[in-house]
Amino acid sequence: MTSSPSPRHVSANQEDEGPRGSRPALGQPRTPPGHPDLQAPSKGPARAVRRSTELPPTHQALICVALPGLAISSAQGQLTAQGLEGFYHGGRRLVSRCQVRLAGREPLAVQARMISADRACFTATARGSSDAGPDPDVVVERIRHADGTEDITLRSSAQRPLRLPLEVALGTDLAELGAVAAGDPGRELPATVHGSGLRWASPTGSGPSALVTATPAPTDALASAGLLRWEIDLPPGGTRTVRLRVRADDAGTARAAARGSAMRPLAPARVEGDDPRVGPLLRGSIADLEALLVRDPARPSDVCVAAGAPWRCGPAPAEALAAARMALPLGTRLAVATLRTLARTQLRRSGPEFGKLPGPMRQTGAQLPPSCTGIDATLLFPVVLAEARRWGLGAQELAELMPAAERCLQWLRTTARAGPYLPDPTPGGPQRCETQAHAHRAALLGADLLDAHGRPGGDELRQWAEELRLRFREDFWVEDLGGGRPAAARTADGRPVVRLGSGAAHLLDTGLLGAGVCAPGLLDKAQTDHLARLLGGPGLDSGWGLRTLGVKEVAYNPFGHRSGAVRVHETAVAVSGLSAVGYEKEAASLLRGALDAAGAFDFRLPEMYAGLQRVEGGVPLPHPAACRPAAVAAAAGVQLLAAAVGIRPDAPARTVTLSPMRSAPLGEVGLSGLRVAGQPFSVRVSRLGLAMVEEAAGELQLRV
Questions:
Q1: CA distances from 388 to 78, 254, 576, 633, 659 (A)
Q2: 632 and 639 in contact (C-beta within 8 Å)?
Q3: CATH code at 548?
């Protein structure tokens, strides 16, 4: 992972030093240097402490997420203040130590597992009686929840009653996540006895504080050691439970109110079929998306998804929009809330930046400077709104969001006047292949959106898109002995940057127009055909998904976040795009590889994993610093299944087109509980690749 240029912490959602008048995106937990998408230094005072510039590994950690709550544990179950371990709220570690001892000894850990996105279970054993021999006769089970709750349950198998002293040693440093990850959490703070538990406060007296309460109340509490103690009576076969509640001293009520029905904007869709992996994948994807939901402080009724845990617990605009777009089969509520949230950050001061959405810088490899994700977000905004309209977005919500979409399109027209290509990140920067694909799609879908509302500007956007399409096919296609490839970018003086990676898949992501018709792409038929073969070839298809850089390219690194690792988002984009343009063989190969990888990760797909070539009997190797859960990876699970079914709705025209993969790579599959035109929608694809609607709004007509 590329390290930040500064050893200071950076905000999970700080953008680079942009134009004056830019409004930073939602403030969220601070995160450490070293993440490739976090480039801006914090503006707080620097401390004269040597810190690590590398992210600590998280691939073996059990991470429970229900933002703003987070619980990070090792497989041992004991929280020992090592590494990232602890309970967090809003990016601050409220408890760093939570160590259980039974009869003066630590129980022996035997199993750790995730129960759901926000809960983990740790099982250990102990010997409660001296006559038990080598066999344990007490099971200690700990259920840890991201909201700060932990249940410690003792179960006896002894033949006689047991009286066992239970001790829980607690401690905290009240450090920010960024400081913990950078190796500078600070000293453990002294505790005070508070009611039925312990309390910690900032040494200054004006900072944060944390509180742990216990039910039942402990027999004894020793503040100097941070110790709570019980005398537990266990009858033969008996069970006793102690519940700990961890919270910021002023956040209990707010945290309880932060979750609820308003935080569930996704339909509880279900899937069944011949492939047993599809059900767990969809359930895991929805659970991870819901775990990452965060509220907009400016309007708490609006939510969007954070980029990923543990490093990026604030919403990154481009990824929040990409996730909302991929999750449209689950309804338009998440898309609407995300669009509303980001519209409030839009730059509105007159000038060339008017209409742009702010966003952090992102590293894209050694050959190109960091890109601006704000450009991606600005181009995605009208696309998400246009496609949400096709899925059934209400007229009132559409009218509310149209002004912000028009401002995004005005920024596009202003920027495009300098030439057919959009530079990224600055006017003198490179012209990236992906950026042109995003801009072309935004122009066509934006024009469609403007026409639908009787607004001017659609013809100008289509004319520019046509010019871009003609020029792109000449300027960005690099001929070679293998038939050619799209350049990853062009420099400001017109030289192509020849590098083949998963970013080329965005050339096939054209977006949905009316009547189930996909917008035209930037490439011609021959170029599209050749790109499809490249995406399905061994250079990019690892067997587990699409590599971000081909194996024969300079600087290939199977663990490189943009130079060889598999990013699930681009794999889903490739599957959807290849299927839409008729290259089902390549799409099916990537789909099956991603499903196999999902099974290896317990159907909680990380944002990326190693791009090493698949071998028989092998498993994908985790990336040690990947976010898991991650918004775009979780939403990609939804898109992968939707691509296999091929749902293309047009709610304004009251039609829905089904274009499933005729090869039926998943066998028979049935999706139910989706949302089209605001009503439940269910579809089934047979083993012969034939689709049938099982449930839909009464006014919808099926098109094939």
A1: 45, 31, 17, 20, 19
A2: no
A3: 1.50.10.10
Same domain, 309 and 238: no
Cross-strand bridge partners of residue 648? 657
Structure token digits, residue 32: 């450490």
| 394-441 per-position pLDDT tens digit | 999 999 999 999 999 999 999 998 889 999 998 889 999 999 999 999
> Judging by DSSP bridges, how do beta strands 138-145 and 86-89 pair with one another?
unpaired
Nearest to 257 by CA among 344, 147, 337, 342: 147
Last residue of a domain, one of 206, 238, 258: 258
Lookup: tokens for 562: 């943009």
Among residues of the chain, what percentage have pLDDT more than 90?
82
Do residue 528 and residue 583 come from a single domain?
yes
Residue 43 covered by a domain:
no
Among 208, 237, 258, the domain boundary falls at 258
Span 46-69, average pLDDT? 77
Mean of pLDDT over the chain: 90
On whether both 582 and 697 belong to a single domain, the answer is yes
CA 119, CA 113: separation in Å to the nearest integer?
A: 9
CA–CA distance, 41 with 7 (Å, rounded to integer): 8
Alpha-carbon distance 436 to 434, whole Å? 5
Find the helix or strand (DSSP H, E) in which 234 lies: strand 227-234
> Which amino acid, residue 208?
P
pLDDT at 24: 33
Written as six digits, the tokens of 50 are 């040597």
Q: Which tens digit of pLDDT belongs to each residue from 533-551?
A: 999 999 999 999 999 999 9
How many domains does the chain fold into? Answer: 2
Collapsing DSSP states into helix, strand and coil, what is residue 679? strand
Q: 267 and 216 share a domain?
A: no
pTM: 0.91
CA-CA distance, 441 to 426, in Å (whole number)? 21
268 plus 254 within the same structural domain: no
Tokens of 401: 């969001």
Residues 626-684: tens digit of each pLDDT:
999 999 999 999 999 999 999 999 999 999 999 999 999 999 999 999 999 999 999 99
Residue 583, in any domain of the structure: yes
Convert the pLDDT of each residue in 292-308 to its tens digit: 999 998 899 999 999 99
Task: Specify whether the CB–CB gap between 413 and 457 falls below 8 A.
Answer: yes
Tokens coding 400: 């509310």
Burial class (CB in 10 A: 0-12, 13-18, 19+), 53: middle
Phi, then psi, of 233 in degrees rounded to 5: -95, 120
**In terms of domains, do 237 and 336 share one?**
no
CB 40 within 8 Å of CB 11: yes
Mean pLDDT of 144-162: 96
* Residue 366 burial (CB count, 10 A): 13
Domain residues for the domain of 159 are: 61-258
Q: How many other C-beta atoms lie within 10 A of the C-beta of residue 46?
A: 11
